[in-house]
Design brief:
The longest helix has 15 residues. The protein folds into two domains: 91 residues, 2-Layer Sandwich (60s Ribosomal Protein L30, Chain: A), CATH 3.30.1330.30; 152 residues, 3-Layer(aba) Sandwich (Alpha/beta knot), CATH 3.40.1280.10. The strands form two sheets. It has a six-stranded parallel beta sheet with strand order 7-6-5-9-8-10, with helices on both faces. The chain has a four-stranded mixed beta sheet with strand order 1-4-2-3, with helices on both faces. The chain has 260 residues and is α/β, with parallel strands linked by helices. The chain is built from ten helices and ten strands. Helices cover 38% and strands 20% of the residues. Bound molecules: S-adenosylmethionine (SAM). S-adenosylmethionine binds next to strand 8 and helix 10.
Amino acid sequence: MRDHDAPDEAVRRWRETAALPDAVLIDGFHALKHTLRFGGEVREVLTTDRAALAALAGDLADDVARTVTAAAVEVPSRVLRELVARPHPTGVAALAIRPSADAVLAALRGTPRQAPVVVLDNPRNLGNIGAVVRLAAGFGATGVITTGDIDPWHPNVVRAGAGLHFATAVARLAVPELPDGPLYVLDPEGEDIRSVTVPDDALLAFGSERHGVSPELRARATRLLAIPMRPQVSSFNLATSVGMGLFHWMTHSPSAPAPA
Ligand SMILES: C[S@@+](CC[C@H](N)C(=O)[O-])C[C@H]1O[C@@H](n2cnc3c(N)ncnc32)[C@H](O)[C@@H]1O
């Protein structure tokens, strides 16, 4: 990341970086804060108000404030709107480079695993995927794997994940490519999760919003686990189910994050 001062040059570089296949839009201050905290490679930072950004960074993220303000180049709102479809209310946007596929796979396949990998089987909702990345980061999960056709690095997923893709390992894989490990599949038809300890090396898998767990994943399951629900409620939302599954793992695991 370089220290910029010329808006035209910064815009030219933005366009050049945005065209790279591994460029990721980091939308808003909180996403930028997390990207920097977790070692994301940030290339360009644009803001519509440098003084306001410096004040916000000083208030909310002292640890990265100096880096943010050194990198930010002020551009008119009109220019930011040309580059970013719907600029975040904090008036800051950045471009980062996503980690290499090899690095992500090494993290997901590394052994011994200290915390589960979350598997989302053909998820459809970008907001849900982002929320799950955020949960995985917060719970210290090893990573998030999605199957199916949606890129879990889609800009709307990164936006919903508040920049926390850089705090965990996020990849799309086919079911046969999943890392080794016991496969604990969450499904309302399973056994009561409260009677089961989820091991640290588990793959903790969840079905799609529309159709639930695919037959392919179900056939591979080590165990099927249900989160109890009141009768007549058919299912919980996908992301909330992941939150409950990870929380259940956390309550039994010495590897789970300790309170701050
Ligand atoms: C919105 S639900 C899927 C609903 C879908 N219509 C179905 O038929 O299963 C998405 C996923 O969340 C998880 N889930 C939701 N409620 C659950 C529960 N009570 N117990 C275990 N998993 C649950 C499952 O993995 C499920 O596939």
